[in-house]
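Quiz preparation item.
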């Protein structure tokens, strides 16, 4: 009987002889059965874990709850997510998605298990196999998933299931190249309100943002902020409308990363400010005119996100900044209002992960 080994203070447990791997699926079909069969053939313990398609929990959250060190998740009919968790810290040590190439006979389950096993060996969660390739060569034919295969096919099959140390390193190199070329890109849209000291009323705004997550802690984004309502100032003899546009970028540092449902980060950056002002005279003695003013802004942002699904997050953000030189509205040579010293914008919106979709359309760099 295999003895259970629980690491002191660790949120993850694993068996002394066999690593527990979750097989997460929405429907138990041929794809999930193949994954379990490949895991068993590779000497890994497969744990069936049903999860609805709309389940908002991440793969990491499900694996942590089951105290598993690794997981394979059928995220779609064509994609298998591969996750390995560091048993010491409980944070992801490796994450990737094995995508279908479109070939009907493609051994996708075998590719996913091979990639998982190679990473487990590198992290020393599995011992390197010794001499198993020779045993497979002498074994002749074998039965895999209830089907009899020839002697040559048995040799190839077993060498894939129990690769040598050289094959492990080769598979690991392929996995590293796939991870290095992965694109983690989020597109978001949000609505909110902005206000500034200087006599102008608050206004409604919309923001579009593109966010590239380079590491679990660091990300960069570019955005455009558009006014939905004008900010107006009125006096007895004149009035003016001000529309403020921002185009900028932010560098983000995640304070809470790799969490199951929510994350929080801080950002710092800058923006180009375009203030379009339109003056109107209420008396024939004055003349109203339109003017566009350009300025720069130093920005800071605090945001938090809630994961609703694997590729969908809800994000709330507070964007604040200082504008120089400040745009000012003048009536008869005197300032009656100005904008941006300082200003704050509260935003709420949704973001979707378009990186996986783009990655699946990009040609592979492997030969």
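Solution:
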């Amino acid at each position: 009987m295999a003895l259970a080994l629980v690491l002191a203070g660790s949120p993850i447990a694993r068996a002394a002889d066999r690593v527990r791997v979750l097989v997460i699926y929405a429907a138990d079909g041929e794809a999930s059965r193949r994954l379990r069969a490949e895991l068993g053939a590779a000497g890994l313990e497969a744990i069936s874990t049903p999860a609805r398609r709309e389940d908002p929990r991440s793969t990491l959250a499900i694996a942590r709850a089951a105290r598993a060190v690794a997981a394979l998740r059928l995220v779609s009919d064509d994609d298998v997510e591969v996750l390995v968790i560091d048993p010491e810290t409980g944070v992801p040590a490796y994450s990737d998605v094995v995508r279908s190439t479109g070939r009907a006979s493609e051994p996708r389950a075998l590719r996913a298990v091979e990639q998982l096993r190679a990473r487990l060996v590198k992290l020393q969660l599995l011992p390197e196999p010794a001499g198993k390739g020779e045993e497979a060569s002498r074994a002749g034919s074998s039965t895999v998933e209830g089907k009899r295969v020839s002697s040559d096919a048995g040799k190839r099959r077993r060498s894939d299931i129990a690769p040598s140390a050289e094959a492990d390193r080769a598979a690991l190199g392929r996995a590293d190249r796939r991870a290095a070329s992965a694109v983690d890109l989020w597109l978001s849209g949000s609505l909110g309100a902005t206000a500034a000291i200087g006599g102008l009323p608050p206004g409604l705004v919309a923001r579009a943002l593109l966010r590239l997550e380079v590491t679990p802690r660091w990300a960069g984004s570019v955005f455009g902020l558009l006014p939905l309502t004008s900010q107006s100032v009125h006096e007895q003899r004149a009035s003016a409308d001000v529309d403020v546009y921002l185009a900028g970028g932010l560098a983000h540092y995640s304070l809470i990363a790799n969490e199951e449902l929510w994350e929080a980060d801080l950002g710092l950056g800058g923006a180009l400010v375009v203030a379009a002002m339109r003056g109107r005279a209420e008396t024939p003695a004055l003349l109203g005119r339109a003017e566009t003013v350009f300025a720069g802004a130093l920005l800071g942002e605090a945001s938090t996100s809630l994961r609703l699904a694997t590729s969908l997050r809800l994000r709330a953000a507070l964007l604040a900044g200082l504008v120089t030189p400040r745009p000012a509205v003048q009536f008869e040579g005197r300032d009656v209002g100005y904008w941006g010293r300082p200003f704050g914008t509260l935003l709420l919106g949704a973001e979707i992960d378009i990186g996986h979709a783009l990655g699946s359309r990009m040609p592979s760099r492997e030969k």
